[in-house]
Amino acid sequence: MAIASTSANYRKVKNSLAKWIITLGGISVLFTLVLIFLYLLYVIKPIFESATVEPVGQFKIEEGYKVLATGTDELKEVAYTISENGQINFYQLVNSGRYKAGEKILSKQLVEDGETLRHLVDIGQEQKLLLDSAGNVQLIEPHFTASFDTGERVIMPSVRYPLGEAYLPIDENNIALNKLSFAMDDEKAIFVGWTQDKRLLKTTLLAEDDFSYDTTYEAQYQIIDYNANVIDDILVTPDLAMVFIRQANQVAVYSLDEDTELKATIIPNFAENKSTANHITAMALLSGGSSILLGDDGGNVSQWFEVATEQGREFKQIRQFKVSDTEAIIAIYTEQFRKSFYTETPSGEMGMFYTTSEADLWRGKLHQGDAQAFAITPRSDGLVVFTDQQLAIFSVENEHPEVTWQALWQEVWYEGYPEPEFIWQSTSGSDDFEAKFSLVPISFGTIKAAMYAMIFAVPIALTAAIYTAYFMTPGLRRKVKPTIELMEALPTVILGFLAGLWLAPIIEIYLPAICLLLIFIPSSVFITAFAWHKLPRTYKSLIPETWAPIILIPTILLAAYAAFALSPLLEQHLFGGDVRQFITNDLGIDFDQRNALVVGIAMGFAVIPTIFSMAEDAIFSVPKHLTSGSLALGATQWQTLIKVVLLTASPGIFSAVMMGLGRAVGETMIVLMATGNTPILDWSIFQGMRTLAANIAVEMPESEVGSSHYRILFLAAFVLFVFTFVFNTLAEFIRQRLREKYSSL
């Protein structure tokens, strides 16, 4: 009795220990899933936070003249002002070992004594085009150099002259200019100016080599045919392609291409596009120069860019921002590398907007009275305002202006596109690239890849599971089932490699054979089964029952050989010798070598073992007394299979299919290697796709940590997580309903 009691206590301890270990394991899995979910939200959260503008410092600056321009270095440690008397002053913004905050550290005269600045053009990249009262033109650039001679970082300011210190020859007649705009690249600089005698000039400076401080250049002059008494604005695009000229409410666009005649394309009269006749009060070029922003006296800012139409390329109004209900727009300031812009009204109300996402990011008031000068810092992380002898510095927290739910999930009209579209294009070689972060194409690609994989895998896996579990002899089942399950151990990178480099070219060359296989293989199976059924019993007895299904192997191989042998003949007689050209030219369907058909076959092979194993176990686990009772009541094997076995096993079969779907949705390497990774919205079986998982694998190593691109990739992972969670939850719900419904059988 003592031994039996000890054994019972020992078993009780083991059972209790096993219970706690299993419970702890389950809780750990759930806790890990919750942690993953929370971490994804932690990384994603900043992209949906609102922009903020906070004051950093304010300094009393004694300037005897009106300030025309201001700015800072990249680190916001030194600021400068350019005054109407042609003087540039540099001020320390933070305390250092050498200077105190607010102290003037350098001053330089930019124009000759007695002259003043008539006009100043802010070119971007901190370059300023100066036009003095004598009609002289110079290009200057405030420059900042970091020095560590004293053991600490000291920003040393200076002034550079990118085109030399000599005055620039804008007008060969030496007539003073009223308006002037400019842009340059490494080889040439283009100036467009409006003279006092009402001529519109185009002056091109051609460098013998790349522009530098001592470069010699040749000047070319051209008169632009433009009749007007007054010109309000002139803007030359940074790529030297176009110039925008505004007179009142009419904006003319000239191409600056040397091989093109200078003819104006008139943007439709601004008043004609409004229900009320608002008037243009401000104009600015968006980053990159492809879009122009027009502000009016009704408090609206509209974005215009060229769109391909049936009549050619035309400027169209793409979107509009409502800034104020009562005030006009007096100024528009654009960032250098992003599609953000700021607006200003007469009362000093400022607004921050982003064009692509149509985001209204921030509204507020930075100053009292009129601001003499306003500037966005080089890194777009701060603002500089000079007003009433006060230089105010503000920090801007606006890391992800391009991200909104609308930009992620709705059609967006991007620059240069004929209409709004869903596009994923996260990078480019251009600094002013308009990032396109629509998650629709890659979410669609995930569903498309999973759908084609399931179309291929489910019929094969379920029919194989039914035959193996219900009809196959036990001896053969013990060999077949482990063999198929062993396929699951095959690395998906091998399947992707074979699909991309071996299967895709075969399908492209023998596409008719793939279609014939869908006819020949089922037909050969039915013909063989019918022949076996009609075979005399004496001949059937010569072949062991275990080996009877093996007869299908040579039959299927022969059918496949016939399909591939007939493929060239079929292609020659029905498709003119090239089925790919027929699909592309005659049917108008694009054909990619690595397409959805290749992905469906390759990913189907990866999913088949999962579905087969679970479905086969579910069918084989149906109690034998149910099948025996059905057969005893006179039902045939097929009736028993359909009415009893499959219904009883339906919860397990459904779970197998959903597990396979979950595997297909999350598959990475096969999709990455077997498709062109093109994020397009097309159900065509002959085109590729890009999935969420493949997109993360491709772009995560190249994304900058903390950038919008980086966080949106985590958002894509979160969407994938939600996909699988929804599918699994739905599967469990349906499985429980099926179990409750058929548990009484």
Question: How do you describe this structure in short?
Answer:
Among the domains are: 2-48; 440-742, MetI-like (MetI-like fold).
Task: Report on this structure.
Helices cover 38% and strands 26% of the residues. It contains 15 helices and 30 strands. Strands 1-28-27-26 form a four-stranded antiparallel beta sheet, with no helix packed on it. A four-stranded antiparallel beta sheet has the order 2-3-4-5, with no helix packed on it. The longest helix has 43 residues, at 2-44. The model has no long low-confidence stretch (mean pLDDT 85).
Question: What attributes does this structure have?
Answer:
single chain, 745 residues, alpha+beta, MetI-like fold, four-stranded antiparallel β-sheet, 15 helices, 30 strands, 38% helix, 26% strand, elongated
